Fold this protein.
Amino acid sequence: MENCQTDKVENTLESFKRALDSAICKAPIRSGNRIYLTDLWIITSIPEEMIIELLASNQFRLPEEAVAIVDDRRKHKRVLCEAESQGGDQ
């Protein structure tokens, strides 16, 4: 029984990760080349705190033009995830 619940939790988290990955690609790029947490929440309906947790514990590839995902719920926008530096063209 406990193993079944663990599988359900893992499947749910995996579904959330896939949904968030898809939402990152679909989200509008805002000023400063940033993606807003609230846009990801609107696209996925995943609770904002869960999105923050997923961003902290997993690596997501941001669109080429985006530099970061930020928590826009407050005046001071906290960076939740930054794009990896792309090297080689210089």
Notes: Strands lie at 34-36, 68-71, 78-82. Residues 2-82 form one domain. DSSP finds three helices and three strands in the chain.
